[in-house]
Structure formats: structure tokens, C-alpha cells
Amino acid sequence: MIKVLYSDDGVVMLRPLTMADADAHLAGQDVEYVTWLDGADGTEATEKRRLADAEKAWEAGGPTFAFAIMSEGKLAGTITAEVGREDLHDNQADIVYGLYPDTRGRGIATRAVMLMVSFLDQVPGISEAVIRVSPANPRSRSVAERAGFEPLETEQTAGSEYEWLSSRVSLVPAEARG
Ligand SMILES: CC(C)(COP(=O)(O)OP(=O)(O)OC[C@H]1O[C@@H](n2cnc3c(N)ncnc32)[C@H](O)[C@@H]1OP(=O)(O)O)[C@@H](O)C(=O)NCCC(=O)NCCS
Question: In angstroms, rounded to a whole number, what is the distance separating the alpha carbons of residues 69 and 87?
Fold first, then answer.
């Protein structure tokens, strides 16, 4: 059961992404965000649908957990974790993130990933966070590395078009804790 929806490290706060973020999100996104963020195409209709889906998933308790990345009281970007994907093991959550251009270059994405990992610690059955980056997007790989993720080279990742990095979410599964 998800108990804590908000996380904050004093500089960056994550809170659930909702339809109320539509205007700021549409104004903030740029070509880079749209190019690299899975499922984004930059059109108002698609982006509003993504936000509506995000809101519904919060009500349903998954399988996606989409957060607004807040910095200095403003929407700086988005970060989403997805569990139960067919291309991942049951204990793995996939993380994708994007910042708007004026919030890049300040360590905000790295902080957001670290906050996401601590959020995932309370999701039952999830013990590993995975970030898959395109070899053509080294800035994204750097975020994962700064957040402490390490290359994942297993049977699962062999032959993938992406570079996989992973981080342990917790040593003790959520359901085994008191
Ligand atoms: C990928 C993306 C999120 C990276 O953003 P970013 O701002 O470079 O990442 P961070 O927030 O971790 O910031 C790191 C940068 O801030 C700098 N920085 C400044 N202060 C910092 C601090 N206190 N802590 C860490 N880094 C800091 C770092 O030196 C680094 O800059 P550099 O790359 O010029 O060396 C961004 O390029 C983006 O939104 N791209 C489009 C979407 C995308 O590619 N998503 C990935 C799909 S999974």
C-alpha cells in the first residue's frame, strides 16, 4: 500500500502529477523533452491524455506513478515509474524523466531520481529500479550514474537497443517489513 505520496529533499519536491499541471507542462516542454520521453509527442491532446492517465493511475494505485518535479515552487519537469511491465521482471520498476529547458544543468533530475528510488521503497514487490537510456542520449545516462545507478548487464539486457542501469531500492522487501 502506498502511504507517502510526497517526497522532498529541501531543494526538489515530488508530488503526484495531475491535470492541473497541463498548462505549465505544455508551456515547459521542448523538442528535447518530446524526443526522448517515451510516449510524449508534444501535442496538447496527447499530453493532456498523459496527464489524465497519470491522475487515473494515482487513483488506481498504479501501475504507473507519475510525479511533478517541483523546484522553487514551479513545475520543473516530470518523472514516472512503471511497474508490471512485460519487458521487466516483477521486482523491477522502470523510471523515465524529463526536465524543461530552463531547469536543466542544476542537478534537479538527479535529485528527482533519488527521491523516486526512495518512493519505490514502499511499493510492494519492488526491489530494483531500472533506467534505460538511448546511447544517443548521454545526458540521461549521466543522471542515472549521478543518482548511483550501475550498468545492468544480464540475459535480460543483452541485445537491447538501450543501455540499462539499475539501483537496488531496498534490501528488505516492503511486504516483509513491520
Ligand atoms: C536528461 C535530462 C533530464 C538531464 O538534465 P540535467 O539537468 O543535465 O540533469 P541533472 O538535473 O542531473 O543536472 C546535472 C547537470 O547539472 C550540473 N549541476 C549543477 N549543480 C548541481 C548539483 N548540485 N548536483 C548535481 N549536478 C549539478 C551538473 O554538473 C550537470 O551539468 P553538466 O551535464 O553540464 O555537467 C535533460 O537533459 C532532459 O530533460 N532531457 C530530455 C528528456 C530526456 O532525455 N529524458 C531521459 C529519458 S529517461
Answer: 26
